[in-house]
Amino acid sequence: MAWVYLLIAGLLEIVWAYFMKQSDGFTRLWPSVATIGFMIVSFALLSLAMKNLPMGTAYVVWTGIGAVGAFAVGVMFLGEHLSPMRVFAALLVLAGLVIFKLAPGGAAH
């Protein structure tokens, strides 16, 4: 169940990052409220995942999902620049996530 919590927490990190961009520096009320709400739920799920996963693994996977997901959302929905180097960098992050998951001691403590 810890990995499910972690996956959902990572996906919600993407959501709060999107709303943070939409908040225009926390100057727009509803995107700001959404940012904070999704942050709270994301952090809560991360903390539940950390009950059964090593801190380093959980945190790297959470931030990796958020980073790669935010990159994808930025390109797909916000018109951010897409280049081969940026795609390669995102693939490296994904490779790191897989390695963390497969590494001895990375699944549970």
TrEMBL record:
PANTHER family: GUANIDINIUM EXPORTER, SMR FAMILY PROTON-DEPENDENT DRUG EFFLUX TRANSPORTER SUGE. The chain crosses the membrane at residues 27-46, 58-79, 85-103. Keywords: Cell membrane, Membrane, Transmembrane, Transmembrane helix, Transport. GO terms for cellular component: plasma membrane. Belongs to the drug/metabolite transporter (DMT) superfamily. Small multidrug resistance (SMR) (TC 2.A.7.1) family. Gdx/SugE subfamily. One of its GO terms (molecular function) is transmembrane transporter activity. It is a multi-pass membrane protein. It comes from Brevundimonas lenta. Pfam families: Multi_Drug_Res (PF00893). It is found in: Cell membrane. Coiled coil: none annotated. This is Guanidinium exporter. GO terms for biological process: xenobiotic detoxification by transmembrane export across the plasma membrane.
